[in-house]
Amino acid sequence: MSPKTLRFGLWALLVVLMGALLGSLVWLVGRYEQSRYENQLDISASDLAHDISTKLVRNAQRLNVLLDSETPNWSWTARQLLEEHPEIFRVERRDAALRTETSANSLYLRQASTNGVFHILGRQNFQSEVTAACALAARSQEAAYSVSYFIPQSNGIGYEVTDMCLPRIENKHVTGYLVVTYSLNGILKEWGEAATRQNQEVSFVAADGSRLAVMGKVTRSGHRVTAKTLLNLQGITLLLRLEIWRSAPYWLANTPTALVLLLVTALTGVLWLLYRDTRKRLRAEASLAKEIIQQRKAEEMSRQSLERLQKSARLATLGEMASMLSHELNQPLAAIASYASGGLNVLATEADKTQIKVALERIAAQSERAGLVIKSVHDFVRRREAEHSAVAPQTLLDDVLPLLGLLAKQMDIALDLQVAPHLPPVWCDKTLVEQVIINLARNGMQAMGVQAAKAPSLDASLRVLTLKAHQDATSDGKYVAFDVHDQGSGLTQDVQDKLFTPFFTTKTEGMGLGLSLCRTVIEQHGSSLTYTTQTQAPHTGTTFSFKLMTAHAILT
Ligand code: ADP
Question: Which of 127, 171, 466, 473 has its CA 20 to 30 A from that of 186?
Answer without folding.
Answer: 127
